[in-house]
Structure formats: C-alpha cells, structure tokens
Design goal:
- The chain is α+β, with helices and mostly antiparallel strands.
- It is built from twelve helices and 29 strands.
- The strands form five sheets. Strands 16, 17, 18, 19, 20, 22, 23, 25, 26 and 29 form a ten-stranded antiparallel sheet that branches.
- Strand 2, helix 3 and strand 3 form a beta-alpha-beta unit.
- The relative contact order is 0.10.
Length: about 600
C-alpha cells in the first residue's frame, strides 16, 4: 500500500528574517521592538491554526529567541498537550538581543560559525530549551547542518533523532537570484529524507558504522526540475514559494501548480517501494502584515490556508499521513535500509515542455539523467568518497557546504557549449559514413522499473538518420543497488541496412568543483589500463590523448575530492581512451569506442571509488 507522509514544521521566530526592516520602517535596528515580537507571535498562531483546523499536527521548532518569550513557550506546551504537536528546537532564529549581546556578531547561520562557537551555541540553546520545558528535544535543524555539528549534537544530546539538515540545490543559482548576496552554498545533497553519514552530511550512510544517529530531512520539498533549472526558492510545496515565483492567477488568487507539485511528490511512491514524502518548514516572516513577494497579506494567508486544507483533505481521504519529526524518524528507520536508493522520475508541470529528469541517490552517488538530452547524465556527485568537508570560520570552506560534482551541466556547460571547449556530460555519439550524431540531440522519454535490487530506466527508442542508413536505438540505464556504478546499454533495434556497421563512442566529460569557476586540475591523473599499451597522463593542460584496443579500464583520479571515476566496457571492437583538457576547457574525457549492427548491444559501466 502506498503511503504519503508529510511533516509540517512551524517555528515561532520572534525576529523573522527580513521582518525587522519592514516593521522598523526606517528606524534604528531594534530586535526587541514590541511590534515585531507581537506580530511574529500572531503569525505563528495563525499558522498553527491553519494546520490544526485541518486535522494536521505539527512540529513546533522553538527558536532561541522564542525561548525567552513566556507566551511562545506556553503556546508550545498547550499545543503539544491538545493536538499532539512535537516541541522541537531549531538552530535557525538565533538573532535576538540576548544572542547579540553574548556573541557580538550578526552571523546567524550555525554552520558558518567556528566549531568552538558552534559547540557553545548548541549548549546555550539546548540548555535554555531544557530550562523552559524540562526535557531535551528529539528534533532540531537549520538550513544546513555540517557533519561535525550533527556529530556533536548527537553526542551531547542523544535524544535528537531527526534534523532539518540541508536545503536542496541552495547554491550558486540561489545566490545569483538574490543579487549575489545570499552566501549559502549547499548544492549536491538529497532532495528527500536520508540518514547522513558521520563524514559528510550530504552523503547518506552506507552502514551502521557511518550512521550519524539521526534521520535528516530537507528544508522544503522542491520542484526537482524547475528548481534544478532555475531558482529553487520559487518552486516548492511551501505555498509562499509559489507566490514568490509568481506562479498564480493574480485575478482569482488560485495556484493549481501548488497542488500539482504536491501530487507529483505523492507520485514518487511508485519509484520508492510505496513510500513518498513531503514537508513544509515555515517561519512567521512569510506572512508579514505589510505583504511580501508583491503579494498582500490577505493572499499570503489564503495561500497557507489553502495549502493546509489540501493536505487536510488528502488525510481525510486516507491518502496522507501526518507525522511529527521524531515520529517520522522512527518510521523512516523501519521503512528504509541503508543502501536503498531514493528515486524520482520527474516531469515538467510548470512550463508545458514535457521534459523529464530522473534523479537517483544512494550512499555512493547522486545522479541526474536528462531525457531531453537522450538520457545523458547531467549531474553526478561521488558520495562514495564520503568527502571530509568541514564548513565554517576557521575551515577552508567558510560558506561553501556543497558536495563537489564530477558532472554539472548548469555550472560547467553540459552538451550545449560555446564555439570551443567541452561541457561536462555523460553521453554517446553514433557515426556512420563520416557523419556523427550525439545522443544529447535526441529527445526521448523514460519508463521506470525495478528488478530485484536494480532500478532501471528504459528509454523510448530514438531514430538517428544518416545519409545511407537509419538507425533505431534504445538506451537502458541500470542503477544496481549498493554497487557504486551506472550501467548503460545501447541496443540497435532496427537498421535500414542490417549489414551496415555503426561506430559508437561512449564518453564522459568531467571535472570537479562546486561553482561555475574552474579548479586547479594539476593533481589529476588519467589512465588507460590494457594488457598492452597502458598509459598514464598526469594532468598538465597539454591536450594529450591516450588509448588502447581492448582496454580493460579507463580512469581519472581526482585527489582534491578523494575520488576515482572510471569506465569499463563490453562490446564488439571496443577501444578505450582518455583525453586531457586545456586551460580554456579544463575538463577530462573518458571513453570507449566500438562497433554496432542490428540487434547488437554495446554496454558500458561508469564506476566510482574512493581514491584512498
């Protein structure tokens, strides 16, 4: 039986983001301004009412500021007793007079502090919570929680079993749409709940030894296509994300996209053994009485009421289960096992393009397959490395918490590039009679299936027309659970001339990084492994190539991200090769060429390993 689970999380932020500037109306900053505190608490009450009148329980994540407010504390206790709401504790909402006075800073992102300050802040906040409630919370969270922080929280406060731990694809795209002023970079993590590893929050734990001890949930459920292509802050199941994206009828104040987005999350149960998840994480700043996102308060309130009403109706129909965060953590650990992947075959529900993306995430890799580019892999993160990536003041990554990519079409071009150079992508080219066609040019659709522990994408056949022969080719992509590899099969179903030979070139263009800007590739090493003609190329930006007939493996070792990426192959007349890039195009290429005729199959594996 399919089960759709929702977490509704409210936080009584006494000093909501941005709100001081609005309610202050040009006055000197005053985080204790009575009008600000009163309005914030009123909005929190309204949000709670929206959920409760629709039969939904919430998780109340108390902020540090709210712990100093007797009414906020009393409300949380009352709603816990009356509605079964959970009282949790968020590491958002730190700014208040007491915090500023003690820490002498305007920083508010817990992961950006030094580790020494992180520990002090966590102890302050958790002990204040205990002082007000007489117990420690079972849930916590922030926009992002780095691995060191999670490990410390779990060690110091073992009652915590669930945390909001990352904001999906909150990286350079979000930064640019905030006028280059939102210094939070956390691309490359899961979009759905996971158990973070002790080594890296983004990378799911592969076993009990790697288990950080908590279940992590994302900060908001995003549109996995619109968010990837554009600013994620405009495309989420939080109703006011949809208002910020202006995705509603300005005359009728209706927003069918919101309901379609929720329904698409419900549909993910088809790809995840009957389980689907959705969440809303809401602070009072979204319902400011002065209005926001070009929307008046009345529309802000209506959108939230309507969103909760939709969830409430689904619950009445037996199509939704509402849980608190700690309840969900227990459910998740019962429902899922470590190596079980999260899958999402996602379609465009906003622009009418019929575009499809497939997302796959397990403890070893995260990948995105783009059917508008013939089933090319356009995003690849090597979780197998479980990269140690400390974040915050005093580390090499003060703001950048992203998990590095090997392939990323938005930051490193993808197939469609300028007149020179190459972009990162995993695709294939067919050639015949001097003509060549890249499958990135062949749009298709995908169908999901599961056979044992294999998750399989079967793509609709595409027709490739050369001057002398027409080829009907089908791609099948297999993700074997727990194997840290992706298998690609190219099958020629029909040819206008069955005796013709078609050359296939399976390739991956890769690099590494977290932003658009190139990294130093000098430490990389390319290898061709063969019984004869093996070759090694230390990366020196010299445009060199090496190859061998019947190569057993072609690979690139990337010490900066502790990863080895390789390709292996099975097919007729196979030959492996590697290519070094150059300064204008600082990429590397791995590939295999071979021959195909009608009814033949050419198979390659993309493999990921930890370098050491």
């Amino acid at each position: 039986m399919e089960q759709f689970v929702i977490n509704i999380i409210h936080r009584p932020e006494m000093v909501p983001e941005y709100a001081e500037k609005v309610t202050g109306q040009g006055k000197a900053e005053d985080l204790g301004r009575k009008a600000l505190l009163t309005e914030s608490l009123d909005i929190f009450k309204t949000q709670q009412e929206c959920a409760h009148k629709n039969g939904l329980k919430t998780t109340i994540q108390m902020t540090y500021a709210s712990l100093f407010n007797d009414e906020a504390v009393a409300l949380a206790k009352e709603h816990h007793a009356r509605y079964g709401d959970e009282i949790g504790l968020t590491l958002l909402g730190l700014p208040c007079e007491q915090f500023r006075e003690k820490y002498k800073t305007k920083d508010f992102c817990i992961w950006m502090f030094s580790m020494e300050d992180k520990k002090a802040i966590v102890r302050d906040v958790f002990e204040k919570f205990y002082d007000r409630f007489g117990f420690y919370p079972e849930s916590t969270g922030s926009y992002y929680m780095d691995a060191e922080l999670i490990n410390f929280v779990k060690e110091e406060y073992p009652s915590v079993k669930c945390a909001v731990a990352t904001c999906w694809e909150e990286g350079p795209k979000a930064y640019h749409t905030c006028n280059n002023s939102w210094y939070t970079f956390m691309d490359g993590g899961p979009w759905a709940p996971w158990i973070p590893s002790r080594q890296n929050t983004h990378a799911p734990a592969a076993n009990a030894e790697e288990d950080s001890g908590i279940v992590a949930i994302p900060h908001l459920s995003r549109d996995l296509l619109a968010c990837y292509d554009g600013n994620g802050s405009n495309f989420g199941t939080h109703p006011q994300n949809v208002l910020r994206g202006m995705i509603y009828d300005t005359d009728t104040w209706e927003y069918p996209y919101l309901y379609n987005l929720i329904d698409q999350y419900r549909a993910l149960a088809k790809y995840n053994n009957g389980y689907a998840y959705n969440m809303m994480f809401v602070g009072p700043g979204w319902m400011n009485k002065m209005g926001r996102w070009e929307a008046p308060y009345e529309l802000l309130k209506k959108s939230y009421e309507d969103g909760c009403a939709y969830y409430g109706q689904l619950k009445k129909e037996g199509k939704l289960v509402d849980m608190t965060m700690s309840e969900f953590a227990d459910y998740y650990r019962e429902k899922k096992h470590y190596t079980e992947p999260e899958c999402a075959l996602w379609r465009d529900i906003l622009y009418g393009s019929k575009k499809q993306l497939f997302w796959y995430c397990d403890p070893y890799l995260r990948a995105c397959v783009n059917m508008d580019q013939g089933g090319a892999i356009v995003d690849l993160r090597p979780y197998v490395a479980k990269l140690n990536w400390p974040v915050g003041i005093g580390t090499p990554h003060i703001q950048d918490a992203s998990y590095p990519f090997l392939i990323q079409e938005k930051y490193r071009a993808g197939y469609f590039t300028h007149y020179a150079g190459e972009g990162t992508v995993r695709s294939a080219k067919l050639s015949c009679g001097g003509e060549e066609v890249d499958l990135c040019l062949c749009r298709t659709k995908a169908h999901f299936s599961q056979e044992g522990n294999d998750r399989i994408l079967t793509l609709d056949p595409v027709e490739v027309v050369f001057a002398d022969v027409t080829v009907k080719l089908q791609t099948v992509i297999t993700f074997p659970e727990g194997k840290s590899c992706i298998k690609m099969e190219r099958r020629i179903l029909e040819m206008s001339d069955p005796s013709a030979d078609v050359t296939i070139n399976e390739y991956m263009v890769g690099c590494y990084g977290t932003t658009e800007y190139p990294e130093d590739m000098s430490s990389l090493t390319l290898r061709v492994e063969a019984r004869a003609d093996s070759a090694v190329i230390p990366y020196e930006y010299r445009c060199r190539e090496a190859g061998a007939a019947d190569a057993q493996r072609v690979s690139c070792t990337l010490p900066p991200i502790d990863t080895v990426v390789s390709m292996t192959c099975q097919g007729r007349d196979k030959a492996g090769y590697v290519k070094e890039g150059y300064a204008f195009s600082p990429m590397f290429t791995l590939g295999y060429t071979g021959k195909l005729q009608e009814k033949e199959v050419f198979t390659t594996w993309l493999n990921l390993e930890k370098a050491d």
